[in-house]
Amino acid sequence: MKKILPWVICCYSAAAWAGGFEYPDNGTEALGRGATFTAKADSPLALEYNIAGLARQRGTNLLVDLNVPFNTYDFTRDGVYPSGPSSSPQPAYVGQRYPTVHNGGSLYAAPFIGLTTDFNKFDRWTFAFGLYGPSAIATRDYPVSVTTANGASAPGPSRYDLLQADLLVLYPTLAAAVRVNKWFDVGLAVHLVVGTFKLSNATFTAIGAGLCPPDFGNCDPVAKLDLTGYTATVSLGAMFRPMRSLQFGLNLRAPFTISADGTVTATPPTSQTKLQIDPAAASFTTHFPLVLRVGARYIFYKNDFELADIEFNGIYEGWGQFTEEGGDQISIPQLGPYTMGVSPFIAHHYKDTFGARLGGAYNLKLPKGVLTFRLGIFYDSAATLKRDTRLDADTMDKIGTTAGLGYKIRGITINAAYAYIWSPDRTVTNGEIRSADANNGGQNVDINGVPLPVVNNGKYHAETQILSVGLTIAWNELLKKQRVIHYQ
Question: Which DSSP helix (H) or strand (E) runs through 257?
Fold first, then answer.
């Protein structure tokens, strides 16, 4: 038993966020136009899309947006439940096909708060503060037990990959941007990164010859991690305006590593209920990649009124550098009376991802105010090959359509948006994710060298719908306190 609980922790599919993981994207206005905002960036959303876009935002502006995602991520594992020890009565679920499991993560709302100001003093400089996080699904919850076709209660077929995940990453951000000249702006942001990670899954433990066959529910220890960490990173943005109707934008966020500390709680398998283990210290290190956004925007004017625009954005995320020894790492110095520490790397075999966005808007001038219609489409490439597909995050290709509305009157803008995101179903037949045998040093083979069963073969289905609402207040316009700008 000395090897059982420490190796429970080694099997985590630690959750990551971007590329194939994030859904496009933060901000109601940006989402409605297909998340194309890198070359527009004319609101506090510039904090994420292009820091340089702050430079021409005069006065003081407050933005509060709220995304509410509805996520489906289903898994139908291949195969049937294996039989138990020959000397014991067989559970009713033996021989039954694994049922489909559904993500039961709780409903949540993801805010984006941004404030920009020139302090009613600067003509070229703008400063900003923001609070937001990655636009990712933050909660996942798969069942510990399920009901098979014959009505039997059985262990959840996803338990060796993921049972629960409750993740939160926030970017408190300070930024500044300047108009270098009439056609070129630059900006710099410093992001504090705050992360909390709550993760739970099971592993396999062979306790005695023939007592615990692979994939038999009575032999599954369960572990839960609860960790918090901090770090920081920077973003640099640039905006080019070679002519009135044409804009180009670029934004680069540096990669960063976050190290989180907290506790691990281990629950022994049902066959070892008398074993008690107290919570222990644990740490978790994970990586976020370089993110590069580029955009081009063309504007259609009617006299001095912006009638419409169309924008294309491309996104690159360098996840490929985080493989094998560069992967996530969990460290457990000691668990209960057992002093053998474990510090495994958790390789996801990520690959670099690429995204393409196309969207725009049409503005209708009304007797009072301006009504805006927005549309967009996008595509994000997969972050893993089929064989590495897991349930901690949707790493499959993503195709989406979006629509939005906005109404602006005297400094107040109300926005709404909807997005539908679909991933083509994946059927995995060559999966490489296996449980680990705690009695064999955490290897993916048993003590006789026989590989343990693959646990990620099967069919994956994912789709997400997002509702987003937002409010922007331009205080100077609202209060009719416009001032003369000496540099146009």
Answer: strand 256-267
Give me Rg for the CA atoms of the chain.
25
For the segment 8-23, what is each residue's pLDDT rounded down to a tens digit?
444 444 444 444 457 7
The DSSP call for residue 214 is T
* Structural domain includes residue 483: no
Report whether pLDDT(311) > 90. Answer: yes
Q: Is residue 238 part of a domain?
A: yes
- The DSSP annotation for 441-468 comes to TTBSB-TTSPBPPBSS-EEEEEEEEEEE
Q: What is the mean pLDDT of residues 222-237?
A: 93
pLDDT digits (tens, 9 = 90+) for 414-468: 999 999 999 999 999 999 888 766 555 556 776 677 787 888 999 999 999 999 9
Q: Count of domains in the chain? A: 1
For residues 173-200, one letter each, b for 16 or more C-beta atoms within 10 angstroms of the residue's C-beta and e for the rest, the string is bebbbbbeeeeebbbbbebebbbbbbbb
The pTM (predicted TM-score) of the whole model is 0.90
Residue 419 located in a structural domain:
yes
Residues 6+ apart with CB under 8 A from 244: 299, 301
How far apart are alpha carbons 321 and 347 in whole angstroms?
11
Instruction: Kindly tell me the number of DSSP H helices and DSSP E strands found in the chain.
Output: 4, 22
pLDDT at residue 452, rounded to an integer: 79
Q: How far apart are CA 288 and CA 393, in angstroms?
A: 14
Look at the chain and count its residues: 488
- Does any domain span residue 307? yes
